Amino acid sequence: MAENVEDLLPGVRRLGLGKRRVTMTDMTYGSGYSESSGDVRSFPKKSMPARNAYQIIHDTLKFDGDPTLNCATFLTTWMEPEAEKLIVENLGKNRVDIDEYESTERIHRRCLAHLHDLWNGPKGADATGTVVVGSSEGIMLGGLAMKWRWRLRREAAGKDTSKPNILFGANAQVALEKTARYFDIEARLVPVCEDSHYCLDIHKAVDMIDENTIGMFVIFGSTYTGHYEDVAEMSKLLDKLQQEKGYDVPIHVDGASGAFIAPFAQPDLAWDFRVPRVVSISTSGHKFGLTYPGIGWVLWKAQEYLPSGLEFELSYLGGVEKTFTLNFSHPACFLIAQYYQFIRYGHEGYTRIMNACLYHARLLSVALEATGVYECFSDIHRPRGQFGFSEETRLSASRLFDETSSLDISGANPSVNEKFNWGAPVVAFRFTDWFITTHPKANQDIVSTFLRVRGWIIPNYPLPPDANTIRVLRVVVKETTSEDLINRLIRDVMWATQTMLDTEIKSLGETLAKPLASDPSVTNLAHAVASSNTRTMDEHEKRSHWRGLLDKIGELKKVNVGNKSTDEELADDGSSKPIYQKTC
Questions:
Q1: Tell me, what DSSP letter sits at residue 287?
Q2: CA-CA distances (angstroms) from residue 580 to 487, 488, 502?
Q3: What's the Cα-to-Cα distance from 239 to each of 211, 235, 245, 246, rounded to whole Å?
Q4: From first to last of its 584 residues, what are the pLDDT tens digits of the chain?
């Protein structure tokens, strides 16, 4: 091997490179560098070329899942190239340095004003709030403000302030519990049940309130099932409670998902500052705000609901600034990207996107239930006021979806959602009782694992405490979840389900070692499945229906048994009767 660069590339001496020796580090691969070449627990002792560092990390990250197929996350996984360009151009900006980045601060104030308007804040009032890292920080700030206001009232009345408590449903995500634990507030978790749609039971909540209750967190978009908790009815019950016992209990709305959905797709629902007891709202800009993580927002109805003791004045960045966030430095690039989305899409564009998300979630829900194998715990596809799975509600949902599927979801008209239940585009589903009875060894974890083979990330998890014996698979339908993806997902769920059944009587290797299906087409599959089951079926008809669906996607193969051609089928008793011809 030549030792000098000039031996490899004559004339490079005049570029000042001639005396540089070629070493193994000049190669991208074969350089001897690796992520685990040293003690990964110790800080690296030596440097390496940029391209080697990049390649090591780049190759390591190939083992991550595909964000587009990650149905577990609520987070935004795609933005337009123009938005990404703005992010890259502003990566070095610190939002809190308002004297240095005056234009960025103006964008911040505009975003707050937009949200104040979107959430029906008091007309003519200035927006009170701030950008935060995510809705978790917003929730904590909302909880702190309620605690301080409660404490000030108690101190003014000469009462004890040592035992504050806060109420929220057992379906809460961890940020709500963190707020209570980190800030010395007793967390009173309200049990969930089927009647409360596995969300906050507002009637049980009232019974758990006392004079030390600083407020309530009401979740507007449950991470488990997508249901909205009833903010307006909760407020009415709290009004009644104050008349009876004198307890003045405010509401903070955790609108991590729903606060960017309802204003556009479900404007007839009162949940925001129109509700008298709602004093603050938090949301995630990086969920249905359509911006990359991490960005969130928290707003108060008016300045009076943000105690002045939580604000700090800083002057060491060149100007006087008020701050009341939990962290100090904050990247400006995602704030700028959020503003891009606001002016890029406007009310019209956001409505179109949310309409599409809800439509695709309903299509997936109706198709899953039409298989006879799955039932949905989410209810966004059911007629308004109908909840829970039964043959009656399944057929009602199917008919309503069929009636409304011809409506133009690409438009900015939220009326396409008026006949359906309110909620976020989340599909939570599990095996039907019929399927579990017929196949007692069926395991949703295996279905989830098989879906990973096809690239999908779909978690199977227990419902909240008091209902955690029930496990559901969950799909979050986002902007990038097109109808083509729904078609493919329906096919792969059916494939994974039947593959799970096949492995009961054959080894995994035997089951997966099958030729590809003869007809891999998935065009309009979800609609075909959704419209395939329009009446109540007996057990024999359900089996035939399932075989027909497998045949539709090319997963059912005729085999010769003796002198007869027959469908491969799993026997009722799990014996080694010929099984469905499968693909991987």
A1: T
A2: 21, 20, 7
A3: 14, 6, 10, 9
A4: 445 544 544 444 444 444 444 444 456 676 767 766 667 788 988 898 999 899 989 999 999 999 999 999 999 999 999 999 999 999 999 988 877 889 999 999 999 999 999 999 999 999 999 999 999 999 999 999 999 999 999 999 999 999 999 999 999 999 999 999 999 999 999 999 999 999 999 999 999 999 999 999 999 999 999 999 999 999 999 999 999 999 999 999 999 999 999 999 999 999 999 999 999 999 999 999 999 999 999 999 999 999 998 988 766 555 566 778 888 888 999 999 999 999 999 999 999 999 999 999 999 999 999 999 999 999 999 999 999 999 999 999 999 999 998 877 766 788 899 999 999 999 999 999 999 999 999 999 999 999 999 999 999 999 998 899 999 999 999 999 999 999 999 999 999 999 999 887 666 666 666 655 555 566 789 999 999 898 898 888 998 999 898 888 877 655 444 444 445 444 444 443 333 333 32
DSSP H or E segment with residue 7: helix 5-8
Crossing angle, helix 539-552 and helix 483-502, to 10 degrees?
120
- According to DSSP, residue 298 is labeled E
Side by side, which strands form the sheet with 374-376? 374-376, 426-431, 471-476, 460-462
